[in-house]
Amino acid sequence: MSLYYQPSNKMPLGGVLLFLLGGVLAAAVLAFVYIYAVWYIPFVYINFFLCLGFGLVLGGALLLLARAGKLRSPAGVGALAGLVGLAAVYLEWSLYLTLLFNAETTGTGREADTSTSFSAGIFADALTHPGAMWSAINQINATGTWSLKGATPTGLFLWLVWLVELVIILGGAYLMARSQATEPFSELTNEWADEETLAHPIAFAQDVAQTRSALEAGQLHALAPHLAQSALDPFARLKLHRVASDPACQYLTLENVTPKVDNKGKTTQSTATVVQHLAISPAAYEDLRTRFGTLPGATQAG
Q1: Which residues cross the membrane (predicted)?
Q2: In the chain, which end has fewer C-beta atoms inside a 10 angstrom radius, N or C?
């Protein structure tokens, strides 16, 4: 038996179809929102955050679809997420070209006004002619369509901008969807494990390798309560995962947490994994919940 949870790599056909169909639908909706926002919001600097939102929301949707479809192969889910991400990029480019080809400019100079509208015909034509789309993209790269500090990006710089956009969208889709496939799953009961973050913080693991070795050896006494001296003291966070009806599906995750204050006085936390999805016994699970499940002085509702 492995010390850590190992995904079964099972990919139910129904789950795969749900992931692909639902993912493409989510990609289509998000592509429309993204391109219309980029088109109508006049601040080019915000485009990065719009793109980041596109990638993260698409990734979140794929995560939920992977969970609903009970997809347990990280590599398989990652590959499917990559396909959906590419579909999202293809859809957003099809829509952008649709708006661009259907745009009309009236007036000149500062009085010029550009308007556009969606055309189902142009959109369908762009979708079904990838060669023509690629030619149009190359033409846009040669001339540019937007300005930054009075300059119109073209050529290599514009390719780099588009490459960053591609990486953000694909990366968000891939990383978030794949993370779900690595979560503990009970093959006995055919369900994902519940996750619980214990309320009582754990003492910071100064020697990560030593703490990991102790936990792998079943020495859970290595975990001690965190006794805070200040709000900025580093600590560790303990998470438990289990399926109650499957004794073999009980795991723990331990993360080191380091609070930081930026130059604006805002407190943030950085985390580093000490162990992730380490197998434990049901007795160990209950012991940890008893020791660290509540804060000192807290009472449990009965």
Answers
A1: 12-37, 43-65, 77-96, 156-177
A2: C
